[in-house]
Design brief:
The protein is an alpha/beta fold. The protein has 10 helices and 9 strands. A hairpin with a 5-residue loop joins strand 4 and strand 5. Helix 2 runs antiparallel to helix 3. It is globular and about 50 Å long.
Length: about 240
């Protein structure tokens, strides 16, 4: 099913470019490094972080910044140190086919953009490895000389906030939103999916599949981002479902 190649490509990060932690997927929100980090800080930290998800889904936070600030305080309470975030970043793995996808995008002169509500340390790793043009992330930790949290920079780059960053990039490049594409995996990505001409749900939660142009569904452990290239070529791909 050959498609025209959009000019700007927007990507979610965790579960889209980086491998998803399926063991932590309880259906509330897409599993992310926020939860992985909490789990590594101990079972009590994990339980408190899970409770923030319930509060978020009940609409008890003013916005994404409020939710992040609450989670940051939990991390600090349970002794987050720089070494924990460094190890988390080092352990993060890319899906198969990610380098092939971004090489293909560069050859087609596409602008690439990463928008995530996750950690800047992870976003930096992804941006440098894949040579992504623009990257926005939700939480940047600064640590003191002893390795403990000194300062935190929070940006509303998730849920509704993701759309704001997307619109700014589209405006700066002078491109119509119809000539842009978004790829993600979580229900929080549905706001971006509605803003562009083409959207892809990559092994995604049902709430995102309902609003995307295409859905790519692959077996756990066999995820491969080359499936995205297949959408824009003449090669058939049985893992792709067209929702148009």
């Amino acid at each position: 099913m050959k498609q025209n190649i959009p000019k700007i490509w927007f990507f979610d990060m965790e579960g889209t470019l980086l491998k998803k932690e399926y063991s932590l997927d309880n259906g509330k929100v897409a599993p992310s490094a926020w939860t992985v980090l909490a789990k590594r800080l101990g079972e009590e930290c994990y339980k408190e972080e899970e409770e923030t998800k319930d509060r978020w889904l009940r609409g008890e936070y003013k916005g994404y910044l409020d939710w992040m600030a609450d989670t940051v305080n939990i991390h600090k309470k349970y002794g987050l140190q720089e070494k924990h975030l460094v190890q988390l970043t080092e352990d993060a793995e890319f899906y198969e086919g990610v380098y092939e996808l971004f090489d293909w995008l560069k050859k087609n002169n596409a602008v690439t953009v990463l928008i995530t509500g996750g950690f800047k340390a992870l976003a930096d790793k992804v941006q440098r490895a894949l040579k992504i043009d623009h990257a926005f992330s939700g939480c940047e930790y600064f640590f003191d000389k002893t390795g403990f949290v000194e300062l935190v920079n929070l940006l509303p780059s998730d849920n509704h906030g993701k759309s704001s960053f997307m619109k700014q990039i589209i405006h700066e490049h002078g491109v119509d939103s119809s000539d842009c594409i978004f790829i993600g995996d979580g229900m929080n990505d549905r706001f971006l999916a509605r803003e562009v001409g083409t959207s892809i749900a990559f092994n995604a939660q049902p709430e995102l599949k309902e609003v995307t142009t295409f859905s790519i569904d692959q077996k756990e452990g066999r995820e491969n981002l080359i499936g995205i290239i297949d959408l824009f070529s003449d090669r058939p791909n049985e893992t792709v479902t067209n929702f148009v």
